[in-house]
Hints:
Elements: E1 4-9, H1 15-29, E2 34-40, H2 41-46, H3 48-53, E3 57-61, H4 68-84, E4 88-92, H5 99-107, E5 111-117, H6 123-126, E6 131-135, H7 156-172, H8 180-198, H9 210-218, E7 228-229, H10 230-239, H11 249-254, E8 260-264, E9 267-271
Parallel strand pairs: 1-2, 1-4, 2-3, 4-5, 5-6
Antiparallel strand pairs: 7-9, 8-9
Amino acid sequence: MTRVMLLIDADNVSADVIEQAVQRTMDEYGAIHVRRAYCNAEMAVNRQALFKRLSVRPMVNLSTGKNSTDIALAVDAIDLVIDERPDVVVLVSSDSDFAPLVIRLREKGCRVCGIGQQGKTGEETVGIYDTFMDLAHHGAGYAAPAVRTAPAKKTASAKSAGTKTSRAKSAGTTTAAAPAPAAKKAAAKKTARKTAAKAPTAPQPQPPSEAAEFILQAAPALRGGKDVPLNDVAKALRTAGLLGKHGSSLKLFDKLTGEFAVMQHPDRIRWTGAPAP
């Protein structure tokens, strides 16, 4: 069987083009042995349902440098070609910067096919691949359904209150004034409602950012808000693919000082967004 590797530049093409690319590759080869999508943390969160449905493994890039996602894809592609030895590599991207990668993969004995998004692909991109397919972006057909709110229904208490009001109005046609105790009781309830409305509400905890959420998923011990050894967290991040083999966890957390606190004596880290006990 032909071994096929599908690598997606998810920061470069739309969600429906990704879905079409997976389907077209399956139709042509019958199987896809490696499926990976490279993107930033926000994109991974937004498309996690799509990746799960297509059995695509998201490769999250937390760096903010220029072309950092493209570089991550290229480095991974070379490693995978050496380890997995695919017959065909399909790159899903309209970016012409992958020309050196395509040439190197071809030298490794792979047939390299490209899939891009119409309107974003230049002629110089099409010419570097063995075959290239441009897919149209059908954004409207893949839009998330709008959330509809059902019309409010009267609750039993509201209906009861309405009945009491109508009865009170009816009583008003025959009675000049309500009894004094009842009037005092109604005034007290009204005052209590106003006081409750003015009472300050407790601030709601802010949800973690997308990057922080990926870190918390990789190192769940941080969710409790307690100090966790930095080495343990770094090991968990490397296992999850969020930190390179020689990457510095301190440099990573320097970008997230608003959500994580690093104590260097001893080397421990704490998530500051944990809810108060």
